[in-house]
Design brief:
The protein has 206 residues and is an alpha/beta fold. The chain contains eight helices and seven strands, in the order βββαβααβαβαααβα. The protein has one domain: P-loop containing nucleotide triphosphate hydrolases (Rossmann fold, 3-Layer(aba) Sandwich).
Length: 206
């Protein structure tokens, strides 16, 4: 808990989990939110980049569990030191093996342990816009999605699964509009009163 100097009341720490498909703009949102909150941003891409493979099948089979284990350790250290934390992660492929609900529960329990509020934000864009974003950024790691109709269809078939596993109390925000509007919606969501948040996710210390 931190003290709000204006109201002299205690304010819980925030653990903000930002997820989304490749190309939706989740990293842009995470960086902007981290700057606004004045807190660290834990980025999956940064941690994955230190491994021999940071994308593709080799990464998924060999290194992804280590990357997410490292992210979890960093989150714990930051929360234990009283920091707000923004995590820029994917957590998408995990729904194909039992684990997504386990990851949700891990974040909820970790936040509770450190008297923090955990918020889940999923960034989405329509299919046509998403394809344009991926083409525009020109990453070699998107080739498997863009090089054939089969690859694209396989990629898109996964998207409803991700949204359906998103926590009911989380925010699904569209990012196919001016970024200022997306950011404003996220800020409003994060600023809602404590009584509008699920009580089991945080502890209030008086």
């Amino acid at each position: 808990m931190r003290l709000n100097p204006e109201s002299n009341t205690q304010v819980p720490k925030k653990l903000v989990i930002i997820t989304g498909s490749s190309g939706t703009g989740k990293s842009t949102l995470a960086q902007a939110l981290g700057k606004d909150l004045g807190c660290p941003v834990v980025s999956k891409d940064i941690y994955a980049s230190v491994f021999p493979a940071s994308h593709g099948l080799e990464y998924e089979e060999k290194y992804r569990p280590e990357v997410y284990e490292l992210i979890q350790k960093v989150i714990i250290v930051l929360l234990s030191r009283g920091c707000d934390v923004v995590a820029d992660v994917v957590y998408s492929k995990e729904v194909q093996i039992p684990g997504w609900n386990g990851l949700i529960e891990w974040h909820q329990q970790t936040a509770k342990r450190y008297n923090a509020i955990v918020e889940f934000i999923r960034v989405v864009v329509p299919e046509k816009t998403l394809r344009g974003y991926l083409i525009g950024r020109g990453s070699q790691f998107d080739n498997d999605k863009l090089s054939s109709p089969e690859g694209w269809n396989s990629f898109m078939r996964e998207q409803p699964i991700y949204i359906n596993t998103h926590p009911a109390n989380g925010l699904v925000v569209r990012n196919d509009r001016p970024f200022t509007e997306t950011f404003a919606e996220v800020k409003t969501f994060l600023s809602r009163p404590l009584y509008q948040r699920p009580s089991q996710i945080y502890q209030v210390v008086y």
